[in-house]
Design brief:
This is hydroxymethylpyrimidine kinase. By secondary structure, this protein is α/β, with parallel strands linked by helices. The protein contains nine helices and nine strands. Helix 1 packs across helix 7 and helix 3 runs parallel beside helix 4.
Length: about 260
C-alpha cells in the first residue's frame, strides 16, 4: 500500500471552494499528495463577492496545528489568509518549533479580489521576523506595494529577498502583465507567460501558492518548482471560461505514474 505524503494548508474557508483551504486541498490531491488543513477564518463569499469574515481565534488555530503534528509527518505547509501579522508570527514560530526543517510557502494576502481587507498597517513591525521563517512568499503586485508603502516595489523586493525568497506574481503587473519573477538572495529569474491569453479565476493566487508548495514537497528545486507552477496555473486558468477553475486530471495521472 502506498504511503501518504502529507502537506498542510493553513488558510480560510471559502464556500465556493475557489480559494482557501478547499481550493488548496483540491490542488494538492490533483498531484497525488494528501492535503491536511487548518482553518483560520470562515468567510461569506462566492466567486464574485466577499462580504464577511469571521476569524478563528489564534489559540484555536495553534491547537489545530499541534494536533495534526502529533499524528502526521508534515514537511511542507502553505499559509493563506490570517487575521494579523501578529497571529501569523505565532503560526510560523509554532511550525518551526514543531518541525525546524519545515518548508513554509506564504501567500501574504492583504485584500480579497472583491476588496475586503485583512491585515492592518499598525502591525508591519512584525514582517521582517515572519519573512525569516518562510521559504518563499508569493505576493502579487498590489500586495508587494502594500507591505512597505514607503518603499518602491524594487526596494521592497530587495529588502525581503535578503530575508527570504520572493515569487512575485505578475497578474496585476502594470507593464509586462503575466510575467512572474522569482527573487532569491543572489539571482532573479523571469518566468514569462506561456499561453497567449488566459481566463481569470477566483482564487488563482491560492492555487499558485499551493502548487508551488506541493512541488517543493516533491523535492523540486525552487526554480524548477516555480517554472512547473507557472505551467500548471496557466492550465488551471484556461480549464474553462468561468471564474471557477477545474484541476487537470493529467496532474493526477502523472502523480500516480511517478509513484508506481
Amino acid at each position: 500500500m502506498k504511503k501518504h505524503q502529507y502537506i498542510l494548508s493553513v488558510a480560510g474557508f471559502d464556500p465556493s471552494s475557489g480559494a482557501g483551504i478547499t481550493s488548496d486541498i483540491k490542488t494538492f490531491e490533483a498531484h497525488g499528495l494528501y492535503g491536511l488543513s487548518v482553518c483560520t477564518a470562515v468567510t461569506v463569499q462566492n466567486d464574485i463577492q466577499f462580504t464577511e469574515c469571521k476569524w478563528i481565534e489564534a489559540d484555536f488555530i495553534l491547537k489545530q496545528i499541534t494536533s495534526l503534528f502529533e499524528r502526521f509527518e508534515i514537511p511542507t505547509v502553505k499559509i493563506g489568509i490570517v487575521q494579523s501579522w501578529k497571529v501569523l508570527k505565532q503560526i510560523v514560530f509554532l511550525l518551526k518549533e514543531l518541525n525546524p526543517k519545515i518548508t513554509i510557502v506564504l501567500d501574504p494576502i492583504i485584500k480579497a479580489s472583491a476588496g475586503y481587507g485583512f491585515h492592518t498597517k499598525e502591525s508591519q513591525s512584525e514582517l521582517d521576523d515572519i519573512w525569516r521563517f518562510c521559504t518563499v512568499i508569493t505576493p502579487n503586485y498590489d500586495e508587494i506595494q502594500q507591505l512597505y508603502p514607503e518603499k518602491s516595489v524594487e526596494k521592497t523586493v530587495q529588502h525581503i529577498s535578503r530575508l527570504t525568497n520572493v515569487y512575485l506574481k505578475g497578474g496585476h503587473r502594470p507593464d509586462k502583465k503575466g510575467f512572474d519573477e522569482l527573487f532569491t538572495n543572489q539571482e532573479v529569474f523571469e518566468i514569462p507567460p506561456i499561453a497567449d491569453s488566459i481566463f481569470e479565476k477566483h482564487g488563482s493566487g491560492c492555487v499558485l501558492s499551493s502548487t508551488l508548495a506541493l512541488y517543493l514537497a516533491k523535492g523540486e528545486t525552487l526554480v524548477n518548482a516555480s517554472i512547473k507552477t507557472k505551467t500548471y496555473v496557466e492550465d488551471f486558468l484556461n480549464s474553462n471560461k468561468s471564474l471557477l477553475g477545474t484541476h487537470s486530471l493529467l496532474a493526477d495521472l502523472n502523480s500516480l505514474k511517478s509513484n508506481t
